[in-house]
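hey so i finaly got around to running the thing on SDR family NAD(P)-dependent oxidoreductase from Streptomyces aureus. pasting the sequence first so u can double check i didnt mess up the copy paste, my clipboard has been acting weird all day
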Amino acid sequence: MTTALITGSTSGIGAAFARRLAADGHDLVLVARDTKRLREQATELHDRHGIEAEVLTADLATDEGIGAVEARLTDRKRPVDLLINNAGFGNKGQYLEVPLADELTMLKVHCEAVLRLTSAAVAPMRERGRGGVVNVASVAAFVPRGTYGASKAWVVQFTQGAARDLAGSGVRLMALCPGFVRTEFHERADMGTDNIPKWMWLDADKLVAAALADLARGKSLSIPDPRYKTLMGVVKLAPRGLLGGVTAKTGRKYGPQ
Ligand SMILES: NC(=O)c1ccc[n+]([C@@H]2O[C@H](COP(=O)([O-])OP(=O)(O)OC[C@H]3O[C@@H](n4cnc5c(N)ncnc54)[C@H](OP(=O)(O)O)[C@@H]3O)[C@@H](O)[C@H]2O)c1
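ok and heres what it spat out for the 3d tokens, dont ask me to read them lol
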């Protein structure tokens, strides 16, 4: 029996990871801020799949919260085999419209927590000669689109660099770059989504299935949908100035309304 720890497990992409990994027979450590919701999720997954689901309440925007998850990941008596760094959020508004404190909170959750939790998980995994880390980034990492995309670009660069450094150790690291996924993400940030074309929306369960297949294949970067793979191919070739304009139109309109 292996154990997976998922941050941001109670909703959206994290909940899809929890469903899939529980169905595959993995024990889980579920991390988020809402204890009641975590307990309900743990009970449901235990009852449905017969796995052990542990609840760890932690706010990854705080040192205390990150420290609590680091402590769990480095507990050698209860090894964690797979870490899914998924917790994240968006701030509504363009650069300078968002208070600096909120921007810093985003960097804490998207970058500092990801760095510290990956490092805590990987050290014992390397000793055992096996393990995996999935860091949830975004296709926004590849387009010049504000501080959210910048934080996710950090996640991609960090993860692929670390994957290279750990090659041959038995530990796999992969950055996962979804496009738009129907979750609580946009609603939580009070972002309207009416202008996002229907074809751009992805299903969280299919996304997770494709991501885990990519991890098993040893990929360090996963863009798990043919539509977005094509789109990102075009993005690579397009001038960055033009990209900024196009993405501002399709994406950023879901900012201030
Ligand atoms: N949805 C999209 O279109 C999309 C696209 C690309 C990438 N992503 C990325 O996918 C990841 C998951 O997003 P989602 O769309 O599934 O969002 P979601 O439905 O809003 O879920 C976010 C999860 O993260 C937890 N969380 C948020 N802030 C936290 C904090 N400070 N500490 C601990 N847990 C926290 C939430 O639970 P609590 O509130 O209880 O803490 C919840 O479980 C994020 O990293 C996001 O940037 C999303």
